[in-house]
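Risk register update: the risk that structure generation would not scale has been downgraded. Supporting records follow, first protein first.
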Amino acid sequence: MVSTANGQTRAVSNLEYDLLTVLQNKAEALKAYESYIQDAQEMQSQPCVELFQKLQQAEMQQAQEIRQHLQEVMQKGKM
């Protein structure tokens, strides 16, 4: 629980919420890339397959970094 300036208590801080929201968006993007890759494969467009895989990998790395930040913020309250 996090106490706010006016004495209210929240289950998660604004920063935790922000990180969770960004992580959720990354997870949705990762799932979408699977569909995009499949579509490109069906169209036999290897350059597009490779582009989507590259973008998916970047999203994965970003999601992992966000998770690390979130874990630290949840443990310590900040970075």
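Supporting record for the second protein:
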Amino acid sequence: METKNAIPKGNAKRVAAIITEYRYNSHADVILGRLLGDFNYMPQVEVAAIYTDQVPDNDMSRAEAARCQIPIYPTISEAIVTPYQQGGLDGVVIIGEHGDYPDDEKGQKMYPRRRLLTETLDALEQCALTVPIFSDKHLSYCIDDSLWMFRQLRSRGIPFMGGSSIPHIPPVPSFDPALLQEAGELLVISFSNAIEAYGYHGLELMQSMAEQRRGGETGVQAVSVLQGDDVWEAMDAREWPEDLMLRALSCYPERQGAAHPRLSPEAPILFKVEYCDGFTGYVLQQDTIADQWGFAFRGDGGTITAAVSETDTDRPWKHFARLTAMIEQFIMTGREPFPAERILMSSGLINLAMEALYRKQRLETPELHIRY
């Protein structure tokens, strides 16, 4: 049984939680739940208010809020303004993942993340308040919204942290990160048939490594996506590095002796990212190819480094404990733990990759000529 610890009161930093829904195994459960002392987690910040955009039949928010004596407000404005007026507010945690929202024609879930952020910014402006904001996963399903959201945060001088837990998981085996400075190409293994949701994880992990090359990030020139047999035909034509895929897969103990992924009946997806400086990144995604993310990159002299990001594959999802601790430290210090531009880049990558897949063509990406 999962132990529930008390949330801190008194001198602890106070946050408002803005969420789409809170039910078992949702992102609100595994992040906000920890901030409420669930999973035997010892929270360091006080959740002072909660807003829920939806309340499903299996909702947990009402029971957990009652247990912790936290008010749930009917609007985002009230969830921010009221605690600010009644003791102060030090940060906002937005978890716009999961819930009953429609898909667009490209297969993207239309989570209302821009609306959640807009109403948060309006409420902070009403209070003349600038506090750190965390927003789970990518900014939006729409490139225009992603760009607008990031520019709003930067123009207001708001410390920002976003993204997922995946880039923060220690690789196994470990390696010297300095090797990434000389990397010329990188391939990430992803899984699931949820192309956008898990493709984002693969692209964010790729971007978190790509940005470490010598000279830093110089931007992305183009994206393209292949699907099904086209992936293997492009491999045969040496249009993407089969050897990096095989080296990455060699790091999974459960795949020792497994057949080549092309023999699987599952249709693969290949995301290709062409950077402005000639670096190339790939994400190969296939439903059950693995149950953790892995990668391989080619460095100086052609040497290949490969590893697996060893996430939990079942509850209690310990990688979310690492992410939650990072969120708390961010709220308490106001210091961004990694370049926030990474979240703009990875958001733009999944936005434009889904567009490229829908159009079935390579897309030039002037929106992602971003240096940092």
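The chain is about 35% helix and 20% strand. On this basis the risk owner (M.S.) recommends closing the item.
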